Amino acid sequence: MHGPTSVILDHVKADSCRFVHVDASHLYTHVKADVLAARAVLRKDGIVAFDDYRSEHTPGVALAVWEAVAGLGLSPICVSTQKLYATWGDPAPVQRRLLEWLAATPELWHTTDVLGERELVRVNQRKKPAPAGDLGELGRLSAELRRTAADLKKTAAESRTAVQNLKSATREISLAGPVVQRAVRWTRRHLTHRKVPAREL
User: Fold this and answer.
1) Using CA of residue 162, residue 167, residue 171, residue 176, what is the dihedral sign?
2) Is 82 exposed, middle or buried (0-12, 13-18, 19+ CB in 10 A)?
3) Which run of H or E residues covers position 76?
4) Model pTM greater than 0.70?
């Protein structure tokens, strides 16, 4: 059906859904209504997924979701880069099954964090970084590029210092030039007009 969340309860029975995906308005008041509707239609062990729970352009979603965690008994199960999965039931059984699946899926990186008195599974599509002792060819190239960039930065800084010193010396020479020229002219004038006594024969 197409319409605002406020009318969903006229079409979906309470306690009838295993999964609800919330991805509509990004406004706080709308998402807050989505939270309440999701709680009403989900079964006790049902799961709700919130899209854009952490994007910089959707702070209203973040506020409504974390308010539900803090005050409405919503328990996070897992987060990815853009979605938060949670339940009003017990998250532990779902997390156990999820971790078993992730352990057999090496292309996904994951970890478990402590979130207050809860645990939270974090999943990322990127592979887990290789250990420091096993960089591989790409890791070695990356390290070499970082070293080269650092050397170039150091050389550029030294060049800037040398240029500044050269400019300073040039200014000093420019300022000293007229003084030296006047001194030379004065010396020539006085040597030229000085009378030399004739030697007696």
Assistant:
1) positive
2) middle
3) strand 75-79
4) no
